[in-house]
Design brief:
The chain has helices spanning 2-22, 29-53, 55-76, 84-103; strands spanning 127-128, 131-132. By secondary structure, it is an all-alpha fold. Strands 1-2 form a two-stranded antiparallel sheet. It has four helices and two strands, in the order H-H-H-H-E-E.
Length: 135
């Protein structure tokens, strides 16, 4: 489910980026409303997915898929040319996103999960960054 939400959020990223471009500097009401709704949904989904997938992987996938969809859309609509070189680089972005998914990631255990460090392995009650660790 987290990967589905992340991909849906990335699609919404492409929607808000396209709507932002069509809003003429947020001066056209229709595209501006689409921009605001898609932006809120995209960020909410990304935030939720990051609770399960992990910051680095989730953000890279979100940006890559969103960028690929945005570039694909403008090429499909004829706004920008679909040259062989652009298509090759677009395929590279998609390949990198798939690679991140296949390479796996550190599963986040919950919203308060902390990465394992040498400091977190300290005995209970040890001082870390000026805070006491709960016992």
């Amino acid at each position: 489910m987290p990967w589905f939400v992340l991909l849906a959020s990335a699609v919404l990223e492409a929607v808000w980026a396209t709507a932002l471009g069509a809003s003429d500097g947020l001066s056209r009401p229709g595209p501006t409303v689409v921009f605001a709704i898609a932006l809120a949904g995209s960020m909410a989904g990304l935030g939720w997915a990051m609770r399960r997938i992990g910051l680095g992987t989730a953000y890279a996938v979100w940006v890559g898929v969103g960028a690929a969809f945005t570039v694909g859309w403008v090429m499909l609509t004829g706004t920008e040319p679909a040259t062989p070189l652009r298509l090759a680089f677009l395929a590279g972005i998609v390949g990198c996103v798939v690679g991140l998914k296949l390479a796996g990631h550190a599963q986040v255990q919950g919203p308060t999960a902390e990465p394992a460090t040498a400091a977190s392995a300290a005995p209970s009650g040890a001082r870390q960054s000026g805070r006491r660790r709960p016992e």
